[in-house]
Amino acid sequence: MNRNAVFFASLACLACTNAPPAATDAGSTPDDAATTDAGMDDASTADLCPGGCTAPQLCCPVALAYSCVDPTADGACPLPDLSVSESRAAESARVVWQFFEPTDCTIVEGCVAAPGWRRLLRFDTYTPNEGTGDFRMGAPADHPELFEYSSCHMHYHFNGYANYTLIDSTGATAAVGHKQAFCLEDFEQDATGPGISTRPTYDCSNQGISRGWGDLYGAYLDCQWIDVTDVAPGDYVIHIAINEDSTIPEISYDNNTCDAHVTIPADVAVDPTAPCTTPLTSDRDCGWATAGTFDCTVGATVNVGCGGSCGVGSCTGDPQMRICPGSEPCGSHDRLAFGDSECGVTGSYDCAGASFTCPDSGQYTVLVEPFAEGDTSATCVPAAGAHL
Fold first, then answer.
1. What are the distances in angstroms from CA 88 to CA 91, 124, 237, 246?
2. What is the model's pTM?
């Protein structure tokens, strides 16, 4: 769940390349995996698979090493083949405003140019494995050359899994973003068939993407954006590239990029209570309902909650709240605070709460909505005096 308000960015992805899989040279190094000969000479076998392999097994790249494995039906090494889903990017792209404190992890890790309010182009990056083998990384702690532990986020980042560039109509770079893929996992099954597991194999402790599965970096995640605060409205192209350094060998690297046409809209006033035209999650600028306007002491800290551990108000489902100055609904750029899961309940963190300073008007308005647009089970009845 994120803390953003949603504008829309129109997106129509260009067709991503998807070259036919090439056979693999089992005698190559991982960086040379996409070649045309599945054989291996004795010298290479001795170097990479000591003792050699017993036929019909081949000495093949597996994760970050070589092992003797059974070949595919066409006699080649089983290898992953990642691609980028243009439809996922197209359906999720949006421009949002978000506030960052100077100590925010995204500032520390260079995901935005400066603290304060930033305008972000967010989108999903979905990467299915359409190959004949798994995309294996293993335990992050075992591969310090690829993973870096973030003391800020308190988990491992796989450096450089996906890179994003915003290109203008002249071909010049307008802005650059990046995604530190902290967890490569089997997020959803992408295909069915012989040899494709119906259950996920990889997770954050043993990272990878199984054959026939895909991983999703949702638009709501930290750093899953391009900072467009200083980018003028207009038409642009997002260039998405994954496994750009060929860290893990694949059948083909030709389908690891996608170019998407994007329109960055002008920043205009919005009505946050207007119906959403597209199903979205997060702190979007549509679909909100006014829960009430309340008085407060100017300059005082106010804690508002709706149920759960906050001890005041009530909550069902998964709501979120926005605090606006004065007596009118506000857009994300003008809000005093946003609350999502601050009033956790047993086994959940769904009830919302927020803390803020009472504005000069001596009044604030609370807006509420479900985290997932259209979720009628989510309700939030706010009250002041919460324990946050």
1. 5, 6, 16, 23
2. 0.71
